[in-house]
Amino acid sequence: MTIGQLLQILKARKRLVLLVLFVMVAMMVAIVMFFPPRYAAEAILTIDVGSIDPVSGQVDAQTSAPGYLSTQAKIIESHNTAIKVVHALKLGEDREVQQSYMDATQGKGTLDDWLADQLLQHVKATVARDGNIITIKYTSPDPRFSSLVANGFAAAYVQMVTDLHSGTEQQNNAFFQSQLKTLQANLATAQQKLALFQQKNGIIATDEKLDVESQRLTELSAQMVAAQAQALDAQAKARGHNNQPDVINNPLVQNLRGQVAQLEAKFKELAAKEGSNNPAYQQSLAELNEAKAQLAQAMATYSQGLSNSASNASSRFANQQKEMETQRDKLLQMKTQRAQSQILEREVESAQNAFDTALRRQTETSLQSRVTRGDTGMLKSAPEPLGPSFPRPELLIPLGVILGLLFGGALAVIVELSNRRLRSVVDVELLLNLPVLATINPKHGKVALLPQRSTAKLTLNHGAGS
Description:
- The protein has helices at 3-12, 14-34, 68-76, 79-89, 95-105, 111-120, 143-201, 208-238, 245-248, 251-273, 279-370, 393-418, 425-432, and strands at residues 39-47, 123-127, 133-140, 376-380, 438-440, 447-449.
- The protein is α+β, with helices and mostly antiparallel strands.
- It folds into three domains: 10-175 and 372-399, Bacterial polysaccharide co-polymerase-like, CATH 3.30.1890; 208-370; 422-466, no CATH class.
- Strands 2-3-1-4 form a four-stranded antiparallel beta sheet.
- A hairpin with a 6-residue loop joins strand 5 (438-440) and strand 6 (447-449).
- Helix 8 (208-238) runs antiparallel to helix 11.
- The longest helix is centred in the C-terminal third of the chain and has 92 residues, at 279-370.
């Protein structure tokens, strides 16, 4: 369908179009005249998302969470917020309101809950797409009441957020206060156990004593090794008795052995010359026996000395070994005590850290419970509306005209299609598939010849009337 055909149809059906236009405009006029006016008041809040906590100095994770603004809008539309508005505006004290409540509920439930539900039916909190802004809109037949309720919801929300925050922090503060007493008692017990253990075992704060004892053990170990070597050497020397090189090579023994050798040579000479009864022979024999006795006595004395030295060296080695074992046991005991002391020290440190952490959090929650939240502010209070939000004649009447023309035109086209008629040259050529040679002007009765068109493209419709 061409634009020309559409205009021909609208022109032919103009009465129908005008009728639909009149009906639509009349409906809008009726809405304006008979519908009671409703006034919408809007209060605008700004929400600081990602605000800095004034106590900790960190970004508030709660305000940075996704969907935070939507959550705040739900809080505004919550029943508890509406209850706060009812109490702030003292709506339940109006006798007409009380009577309306009785008529609607027959006394079931509470008046505050019923009023809160009534308010929530006409309040809407909308989050702006761009920006951290929430618009609170309340609609009612009274402009002043709409303004009061919209501002009441804004103020109740700010108070609600503050109460929720301070209430949570107060609960946390009470929890940490109760925990501090237990943690402080645990810290005192751990410190007392550590002090008693250190006092009982003579443990000082530093490890100097342990270092001294370790050095003493090292020295004793070296001394024991030396004593062991000496004992082995002395035992080796004493093992051969008179045949020991130290005994044989002794200067006194060597001197006595020389004297014995000389006396033996002299005795042999006398024995060869003289008889056994010769005084010289007897004197030489006596001197030889005395020299041998002295030699034997000297060798026995030196051999006994070596045996005594070996015994003393073994005794010293045994004493050194025993002293080293005693020192080692003492050092092991000190290390065990030091380990137990360190365990107690770690318990004290852990108890101290727990107490310090709880004390710091208790201080933070105590401050936060008294801090006024600054992340919500009133960007615009709701003024009293100057005009109704519905119905609005300046919008409804033009809307009725536009809708009337659209619906009237659509209805005219539908009626035309249900009963198609020839209204132009184009309709004749398209619907009858016949060439048009001339047209008659109905006003002047003149015949206007149309330029001849190629009939090759046209196929006669023998089914059409003659």
